[in-house]
């Protein structure tokens, strides 16, 4: 293991993202390491897991590894995408996962963080959803994750502008449970973890599993889903997606085409 | 066109309600003008639409044209009501609609505003849902709109008291995305519109459509719906509705009957 | 009637919990008195009901009567549990129920309060969900009540830590409609009640009933429910539940077993 | 009681429609008698109820009392319609209701019969759904009743042609459990009733209630329902409904207008 | 128009598939002609449409035009596939569509026929679903169409064997409304059409639309859908699909690979 | 392995129940052997599995091992019951499972058989659901299995009478795919298996998985489920269940109490 650091003590596991040269981007390798750690913690009977960055930097995680996204013509966010498997691993982990956030959280990393059970950050925490910058059509389960956790107008603002939401606003929106000063962050997270460890692990894991089932209970009909999937397909076969990925790689602003006037 | 003003430039359409002698009430005529403008903007390839009042006044819109409501004995909020058609047009418009709010927003206008994708107001913005003053039974899809966007206790407070929610509280509740000083309102709205225009229109329209489908995914069984419809029918055939409309027309407080004691 | 006090005047009913030697615990006797009062108020045509404690104390209600919970081996929160019947009575009462809160609200009392339509407290109001301290697996409909009303990360924090949420944070979270100074609390509640009484009772009761139906519209498949029920059963047959109840009775901290490592 | 005959013996209740001069039409009076009998049987601990006509005639029941249907402009099949209340009483009766059918079953009587738990007829049994002859828009819960019980192409054939389905085809379609010769019908029904009485009433009533809940689990979104309700409203405000009722009263074939060509 | 023949008289439209050299395969051109005819019939106020083959041949329709299916790597049955658009046009046509069947009906043509409202055939009628012969993963809405209309074990037999179901068995299964001798088929279909024309078009179109909504009410969660979509994607990127299309084109039996043993 | 016999050849696995002294009752031991065999077949890449009895006897399987059912006071059909695990294993097996039936199929074995994908029997095949004889409240997912596969009146007849449905009627009801003479049964089953093996395993497994997801899509709300669960609990704590199990063990007819008259 090279891209993350882990510890386990007193029923608390800790996973630190530690690949800052890539801004902790959630590459397939890093994702696999995290999933393996979660599996190990589960076998060790972890009662809480802390997910954090190894050190306080400007960026907590840059999100998807853009160079691992398909160039075009294929769904970039399928069910068996590495990140999707990680989200599933967090949702089904039988104890709470606490995200400890310092710095900015981008795109897929934002989806990862909101899938954690409890989120605590310092004043540098900030959150952005970036598919509108990449020309990428987000997947429906991901949209549902955000809808289940944030006010609808905020979900739309985040998806339509791709701009950062700062720490204070994130706290007001309950995007995070709380924001504390940087100097107190570790202590606050550890205190929360210790409280959880002192409670009944059985009672907690049943509640987590039931809330998970209820969270996925917003269902749509197959024909509606296929309609949305056809819109998504048109998008990932389209020019915006090509341009978005290209511009990201070239570290320049994308130059998206104007939409064709519609009948 | 006489009740609204419109402009279109740089992929941004703007619609200004401009019939203040009727407090911008959403009459069938005005609604038809708005829908026609949205259709035009769609054909022009608009990437954002701004919905606003023509000038800063005490009232943004008084809501439904009460003199266009049926007197009694017929559902006052059917699916093919003009306002319902407008809500549908906003929800299915293939780009974000930003509501820019100065002054108070009443009843049906409040439903219109929360169906917009992003809402920005100044300190005079205020919001009230008024069917409890009119004795009118609200439609279920309208209640779902509010439930999808606001905390349940707040939805109930608004529907049960019909009192105004002021700008600061509206911001805390995420009823609006943000409140800014009046002097900065237009600039803030334009900045948001420009950001959206710079992003991928394709990515945004897919996300909007998927969120729309998920918003309507709260379904109830036909028998439950028919039960609620029977309660609504008893209401619009009842004395409260007659008195509410009458009182509104006579600009006096309604004098609702006490409910009959129930078995 | 001995455990509560009631009044009825001007279409407003009031119920005061008045058994402070047991910290207003929701014993079967007290629950039956409250339900009987609600039935009486309904027959009297009440247009609003206020639910409060008889006097301002440190505790509003301690929640379930722990000594009435089954020792083990049987679902402690079945559909026909007295408290569940009370929640149903509040949800189906044909007029708004306002909770007036002074002091701390624990466990089942917290479920009762969030099922009220409008909640107003003073600075001493505080809220905790305690099953994780008792080793008790909460029921799915109860979890849905919280999910319908609070941000998901907050629901999890409350269920996983069992710690109190104070008045100011409760207001920011819309767990309550508003927090006012203790000296103004009664006046504020009465003003809200008077406003509601002046509105159309018919319009309000239809809206309440429809919102109730929509609140229960999050459905899951039988097989999912049976899976969760099996987890719950393992919990109430397990050692944590026995220890949690025992510790509570002995007024000491529980000493929960570590979860067995899982395959 | 005058329109029905009832008996109760050995835990089996029997209700015989006995108003042949009106072809056992399900008038409000007759419906109220049936519901009262079901309530009485419930209090007597009935383990099976048989619903039949008093004697073998050409018609089992003519269905809704057409002269009790509203002339126009109001939903003819609301939730609180007498027949709807009867369907609900049959569905929620805590023991099986067996329909014993001789002769033809029309319209609302057909909805009544398929809501019975078990249906046995002789060779004269025949079934028709008649709203297309009356110009009447059927209610959604009624359509769901048929969809839950019959192949979709058959539901459509019945609703679109209003023609009778004969005994043999009804048996093949499982519209009825079985068809037996007239001479054996009473014996067959009694044998089935005796078998049920010998089984566990508790096991049976739980299964019936659970199947009832699952039957109503096909839910649609409020906006879809309101769309269909608007179609229904246009229908009961329209000319076909007026002509259909008029023609029925005058015992002549209706002369429906051609549909207006659509855009 | 060259691939179909149409007539319109007495409110009944008729569409005859007439491209037997291609076994009436549902090519994009033929589909577009059928949709255009339906649109025309709608504008003419058609009260019934008959869909048939131009003459009695061995094959009613061969189904999808296999040479128009994508070779690989792209969903072969997306929402905007021509055949999907035709199914949607049939489902939303505001009057009944009667399928008149002589000869065998294959694959996509079978989906088309079961989406018709009423189906009448002669003794040569036979039905097969062929994706298992092509290695093609069927779409979820298509599977739901079959599940809504046929017993589950029969749906599976048809999808897993791809074998023909003959006329008599099809009648027993209610796959068709009825089977009549070839000499009586046209008369039977015309009689059914005339009956429908004599009924209330308004009542019928409301029932059809409501049944359509209820048919699509089987919804699944986004995450479930994405899981199935990932299975489908693996299939249309896989070797079976390539081989299936190739073998069909070469008019030989496919030689599918054995599935890899799974962990 | 001792209670079943298995073979594997040409991609077809076969499992024969072989414990006739216990009438092939589905004891925990036998269930575990079947599940282990399915797992083995999966690893071998089986494309079809045949589930049968070792020899043609009067009874195919007696169902649940009644002496393994809990005496009382605990849910006899929980999610983690051995038989439930077997049903899940059959439903998620990635290839078709064909049930080959000779003789009578009772209770839980009937649930097992209808969860198979394809069912073929001879003239001795017969099917009964027996909880009403045992006083046992069936689980909701099990009721849904039957509702998904059989006409509602038949499900009720089977659950309310516990009587056998014979081979011919089973075929008419599509409870089985087909009934063939005993002498042809093995050949017929093998032919069906060979056809399936010749088709695309990928196409088939995707269809099976999607149909499985759609089958579980009938969802009910938590509060409805908890209501039914309370009825079930009252049943398995009640006297009928005790008497039913006792009578079965003593091989005598149960003597169920009359239901208490209800208010
Ligand atoms: Ni999940
Ligand atoms: Ni019901
Ligand atoms: Ni559709």
Q: Could you walk me through the main structural features you see in this protein, from its secondary elements to its overall organization?
A:
The structure is a homohexamer of 263-residue chains. With 263 residues, chain A is an alpha/beta fold. Helices cover 46% and strands 15% of the residues of chain A. Chain A has a domain at 4-182: 2-enoyl-CoA Hydratase, Chain A, domain 1, CATH 3.90.226.10. Chain A has eleven helices and ten strands. A six-stranded mixed β-sheet of chain A has the order 1-2-3-5-7-10, with helices on both faces. The longest helix of chain A is centred in the last third of the chain and has 17 residues, at 182-198. The first copy, chain A, is globular and about 55 Å long. The termini of chain A are far apart. The model of chain A has no long low-confidence stretch (mean pLDDT 92). At the A-F interface, loops of A face loops of F. The complex binds nickel (II) ion (3 copies). One nickel (II) ion binds at residues 91, 212, 216 of chain D. Chains A, B, C, D, E, F: This is Methylmalonyl-CoA decarboxylase.
């Amino acid at each position: 293991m090279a891209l993350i650091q882990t510890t386990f003590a007193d029923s608390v596991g800790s996973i630190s993202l530690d690949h800052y040269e890539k801004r902790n981007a959630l590459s397939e390798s890093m994702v696999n390491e995290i999933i393996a750690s979660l599996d190990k913690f589960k076998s060790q009977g972890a009662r809480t897991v802390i997910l954090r960055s190894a050190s306080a930097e400007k960026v907590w995680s840059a999100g998807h590894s853009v160079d691992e996204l398909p160039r075009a013509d294929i769904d970039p966010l399928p069910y068996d995408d590495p990140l999707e498997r990680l989200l599933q691993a967090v949702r089904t982990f039988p104890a709470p996962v606490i995200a400890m956030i310092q710095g900015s959280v981008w795109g897929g990393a934002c989806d990862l963080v909101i899938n954690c059970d409890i989120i605590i950050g310092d004043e540098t925490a900030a959150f952005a959803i970036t598919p509108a910058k990449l020309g990428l059509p987000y997947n429906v389960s991901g949209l549902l994750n955000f809808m289940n956790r944030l006010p609808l107008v905020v979900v739309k603002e985040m998806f339509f502008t791709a701009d950062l939401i700062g720490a204070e606003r994130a706290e007001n929106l309950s995007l995070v449970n709380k924001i504390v000063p940087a100097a107190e962050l570790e202590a606050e997270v550890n205190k929360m973890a210790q409280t959880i460890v002192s409670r009944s692990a059985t009672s907690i894991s049943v509640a987590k599993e039931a809330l998970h089932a209820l969270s996925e209970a917003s269902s749509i009909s197959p024909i509606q889903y296929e309609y949305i999937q056809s819109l998504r397909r048109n998008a990932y076969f389209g020019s915006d997606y090509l341009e978005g990925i290209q511009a990201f790689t070239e570290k320049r602003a994308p130059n998206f085409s104007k939409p064709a006037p519609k009948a």
